[in-house]
Records
---
Amino acid sequence: MTDAAERSLPMMRVVPSGRRLQMRFAAIWIAFAVLIVLSALFIPRSLLPSSILSIIPFAAFLTITAMGEALVLMARGIDLSIPATITLSSTLLLGVSGGNDDALLPAIIVALIFSLAVGLVIGVLIAVFRLNSLVVTLAIGTIVIGATIWYREGIVAEARVPPSLADWGGSRFLEVNVAVWIALAVVVLSTIILRLTAVGRRFIAVGASPRAAWIAGIGVVRYQVAAYVLAALLYGIAGILLSAFIRNPTLDVGQPYLLAPIAAAVLGGTAVSGGVGSMIAIAGAALFLTQLDQILKMLGVSTAIQFIVYGGAIAVGMALGGVQVTRYRTLIARWFARPAAQGRGNA
C-alpha cells in the first residue's frame, strides 16, 4: 500500500484531533506534577534522592509492562496474562541457567522464546478465532501459571540468578539503575516506530478502525496478533529485569503486575476503544503510580486500600478516556451563551 493510500485512511473520524490528543497525553504529567507538589508539602522524605533512586527501577518495570498492555489496548483488546508471563520468564531464567553464568545467554533466549509463544497463542485465539480477549488472556494466564508452578517444583527454593546478571541488575549508570535506561530506550524506540514508520501508522489504523484498515488493504489479523506477541515480549523482558534486580525471584514476582499496567496504560491516555496511545505518557503514568504507591506505604496504608486506589485509577482513566471533549465544550459554550441571549430578548 502506498503512503498516499495510508494517509487517506479514515482515521481522523475515529482518532481525536491533534489538540485533543495533546491534552489527553498531557493530563497525566499535570497530575504527576500535582502529586510531586503534594509530596513536597506533606511527605517531603518521599522526594529525597535516596527515596527516588530506590523506587525508580520499579517505575521502569511498570513502564515496560504498561507499554505491552497499551499495545493490546490500542489493538482493541485487553491482557490479563501479564503476571503469568513475567513469572514464567523469571522461572525459566532460574531453571535453565541453574545459577551459572555459562548458561545465562541460553536461559535468557529460552525465557523470551516461551514468552513470545504465550503471546502468539493468545494472539491467534483472539485475532484468528475471534475469542474474547478478557477470557482468553485470563485462561491462558492461568494455564501458564499452573505450568510454571509445576516446573518450579524441580528448582531449589533458594535458586538465584547467575552472579553476573545479579551484578548487572544492581548496577547504575549516572547514579540511575540500568533498568531505567532500558525502559527509556524502549519508550523512545516504540515511540519512533509508532509515530514515524509505515508499520506504526498501519498498526494505529488497525486499532482505530479495523474495517477501514481492511478495506485499505492492511492485514488486520497480522497486526492484531503482533500486538499480543510484542506485548508478551515486553513482559518477558520485564521478568528478566525484575529477576536481575531482586536476584532470587519467587513465584510471586509477577503478582503486582495485574492491575498496575492497566492503570498506567489508561491513565497515560491509551484509548480502550483502540488506536490511541502514547508511550511517553505511559512512562509518566508509571512514575505517577509508583510515587503514589510510595506515599501510601509511607502513610501506612494497607495493601487492600492500595488495590482500591489502583482500581479507582483504572475507572477514572477509562472514564476520562471516553469523555468527548468537543461535545462538552460545545454544551458549556451554549450554557453560558443562554443568559446573554435571554438578556438581548428582554431588551
---
Amino acid sequence: MKIQDFDFSLPTELIAQYPAEQRASSRLLYLDSLENKYHDAVFADLPEYLRAGDVVVFNDTRVIKARLFGQKDSGGKIEVMVERVLDDHHALAVIRASHAPKPDSGLLLAGYVPVTVLARNDGFYTLRFEHETTVLELLEYHGQMPLPPYIDREALAADESRYQTVYAKNAGAVAAPTAGLHFDETMLDRLRAMGVSIAYVTLHVGAGTFQPVRVDNIADHTMHYELFEIPEETVNAINHARLNNGRIMAVGTTSLRALEASAQVHQGLVAAGRGETNIFITPGYCFQVVDRLLTNFHLPRSTLLMLVSAFGGLKNIHAAYRHAIVSKYRFFSYGDAMLIERKS
C-alpha cells in the first residue's frame, strides 16, 4: 500500500492543545466495523459497550521527563530527548543541535551533568551519564515532560499529571499511552462493579511513535523496537475470557501491539514475560488476540493510523475520520476517543 492511502486533511484548530477539563468528559466515536457504521457517543457511556466477562487491557507504563537541555563542549546549545533508559547510567536519545555531536564528544546537561556521546546509530545516540545519580533520577529532577510535537506550547505543571494515566506505574515511556488518559478512578470502579476484568501490560512508548513514515511504499518502513512485559495475571484473564465468550478490549495501540506481538511469537497465544517488538500492523494483518480497540484519533500518514485501518478497515476509518472532522472532534493525544469493533 502507498503512504497516500493514509492521508487526510485536518484543520489545525481540531488538534487538542490541552486536555479536557475532566478525564472522562471526552467525546466517543463508536465504529462498528462489522456493520460498516458509526455513531456519536460520550466517553462516560463506555460501560454500555461492555459486559461482564470482558477483559480491558491497559498499558501501565509511566511517562518519564525525557526532555533535557544543555550544551556541547564546543558551546553549542542542544536539546536531548531520551528514547530509552538502558541502565542506571546509559540511555538512547535523539539530539537536536545545529551541528550533530560526534562520538567521544562531551555534553553538559542541566548545567552540571556531564555526558559522553558513545555512538550514533539510525538517528539515535548512545549516551553515558557521568554522574553518580541514575538517569531516571536525573530526568525526574531536571527533565521536562515530553509533550508531542503537535502540541504547540511549553509543558505546564498540570501536564505532569494530565499527560499521565491514573494507573501509570512502570517508568520508561517518552510518550503517554493516550487512550488511557480518558480513564479516571470512577470509570475503573464502574467497570469492575459490572464484572469487567481489568488487566495490564507494560509497553514503554518510544520517540519512534512520532517518527514520520518517509517511504512511499509502506512495506519498506521499519519500526523502532520497544520494550514490553505481560504479567501472568493478564494471561490468565485473557484465557479465562476466551473460554467464557468474553471479549478482549485493548486500551490504546500500545496495549494491542504488546498482546499481538506476544501472540506472533507463541502461535497465537499470549504468554507472560518480557520482550521487545517492532511489530508493524497494516491492513491485511490477521489479529489473534484483540476484539475491540479504544484509541484516540491519529496523525495522517502515521503508523498508528495504519494500525487502526488494519483493525477497522481502511474505508471505515476514512469515513469515520471524515465524520469526526465535520463533527469537530478533538484530535491526537489530548483529544477525543474512538471505540472500534474489529473488522474480522
---
Amino acid sequence: MEYEVYGDLLFLVNFSMDFLAFYLCSRLLHRPLSPVRGILAATLGALYAIAALFSPLRGLPALAVDLAVCLLLCCIAMLRRGEHPLQLLRLGGAYLLISALLGGVMTLLSSQLNRTLSPDALPRESDGMGVFSLLASLAAAVVWLLCRVVRRTRATQTVTLQITENDNVLTLPALCDSGNLLRDPISARPVIPIDAHNARRIIPEAVLQSAAAEHLTDAVAALPPELARRVRLVPAKSALGAHSTLLLAWLPEHLSLQSGKSHREISAYLAPLPLNTAARGFCAIIPSELLS
C-alpha cells in the first residue's frame, strides 16, 4: 500500500507540536524557554520526522534512535549550562509525557468531532491545517490546565532548610515556590530568598550591609576578597516583569534540604530579603527544581 505524504505539511505539523510541547514542558518544570533554542529544537525535530520516513530502521533500533533524538532536542531546548547530564532524563520524560498527552487529547477531540458532525459537515482536506490548528489549540489548553494543577500541588510543599557556616548551623522552615526562578547567571546555581532577620545569624555583617547599600555594585566592589568571591549580583524581576533590580546573593559553606524522610545536599545562593512569608512561619523560599 502506498501513501502520499506532503513534506511541507508534515514539517509544519511536527514543528508546531514540538515547539508547543517544549513550551508546556518549560511551564510544568518552571524553566525559562529561550525562543531561539525552542525554535531550533523544534526545527530539528520536524526535519527528523521527515527523515525518519526514509529510514530503514524498524523495531527496537528505531525506538533507540527516537529516544536519542528526543534527549538531544531536550538538551538543545531546555538544558542549562552547568547542569548535570542526568537532568536530561527528567526533561526527556516530561517532554515525552506532554507530547503523549497532546497527541492523545487531539485524537480524542478529532474522534469526537467525527462522531458529532455529519459526513457533509466534516472539514475538507483543504481545511486540514485550520482544523489541526484548532485541535492543537484546544489540546494545548487542556494540557496547560493539567500542568497548572500539578504546579499548584507541588507549590504547597514545605521543607526544612539547613545552613552551615563556620560550624554555625541554622535550620529554617521553607516554602517550595514554583514561581521562584532566580538563578545566578554565571554559575547557573538557583537562588533562595531568605528572611533578612534570620540571615543575620548566618551571613557576615559586611555582606548584609552591602546588600542594603544604595549603590550595590560599589558596595560589593569594596568587600574584602575572601567575601567578594562568594557574592553574586543576581538580576530579578517582579511577578509582572515590569520592574527589574539586582539582588545580592551569598554562597554558604553548606546547604541541605529535608522533606519528610528524605534528606539531600544542595548547592545554591542565599539572597537576604524582607520576606512577607516570615509572618506565616516560613523563612525561606525554595525553587521547586531543588526538590526534583
---
Amino acid sequence: MAVAASTSKILNNVEAVRETLYEAMKSDDRTVILGEDVGNRGNVFLITKDFVKEFGEERVIDTPIAEASIVGIAVGMAMEGLRPIAEIQFADFIYPAFNQIVGEAAKTRYRSNGEYTCPLVIRTPYGGGVRGALSHSVSIEALFYHVPGLKIVAPAFPADVKGLLNAAIDDPDPVLFLEHKKTYRLIKGEVPDGHYTIPIGKADVKKQGNQLTVVSYGLYVHWALEAANALEQEGLSVEVIDLRSIRPMDRGAILESVRKTRKLLIVHEDNKFGGIGAEISAMVAEEALFELDAPIRRLCAPDVPAMGYALPLEEEYMSSPAEMADAMREMVRF
C-alpha cells in the first residue's frame, strides 16, 4: 500500500524523478546510477545535476554510448547485490540493449531457480509532442510487453512518478520505467515528502463516470481528462482510468469500470496494431463481451514507421484532446 507522508510540495514530473533518485541515493549506498551523461552533465534533462559531486563517480557513472553495456553491466551489478538504476538517454536508443533486458534481466530469477534476482530499474524518456522526430519520439512499451519477468511502468502524474519509482527501486525484479518527456515540465502536482510507494500493477480512476470507460496511460491520460471534462459540460459522463502500470496490468479495475459503463475506448500513443490496446480489447472481449453495449474502440497512432518532424506530421500521428472528445462523444451516443 502507498504510505502517505505528512507534508508535500508542488513538483513537476521531472522534479519528481530527480527527488526520488536523490532520496534513493542518499538512503542506500547500494544504489548506483549509470548511463550516458548522467555524471558531470547531470543528464540531458538535468535530472542528476550535481549528483556526482555528492555521491562520487563510483555511484554516478558516466558510460560510453553503448546501451548493451549499460544494461549488461547493470544486470551484473544487480545480481551481485547492488541496486542499479540504468538510464537509456532516450527510449529510441534502447534497441541495442534488447537482449540484455529480455534475455538476461527478465529471466534471471527463472533461469536460476530463484537463487538470483535482478533488482534493476531501467529509466528512459519516451513519446512525442516535442518535435523529436524519427529518433526521439518513439513509444517502446509494446516491444517489451510480451516479456514475462519484466514489469513496465508509465506514470502520468508527479505523485505517481515518485511512488512508482520508489516501488520500482524496491522491487527485486527488473522494472522498465517509462517517463513521457512531454509531461516532464508540463505536468505539475502535489507530491508527498519522504519515502512512499504505489503498488506496481494498480491502476487509478482519475475521473469517475458512468457512460463510457476510457483507458490510457502517460501523456494521453491528461488529454483524455481534458476531453472528458469538456464532455461533462455537454452532460456526458466519462470515466478515465490511468493504467500507471502496463505490466502487470490492473485487469480488475478495467473490468469493473467496463461492467459499469458498458462501453470501452482505449487511447494510447503507440501504434494501433499489436499495441497495449489490443491486449486490453482481447481481455475485455474474453471476460465481459456480453456486458458491452457497443464495440470496443481503439484510438491510437497510425501504422507508420515513425513520427515525422514537421508539425503537421507530428499532429497527424498523435491524437489530440479534440479527437479524443469526438471519439468519446460517438461512443457515448452509440
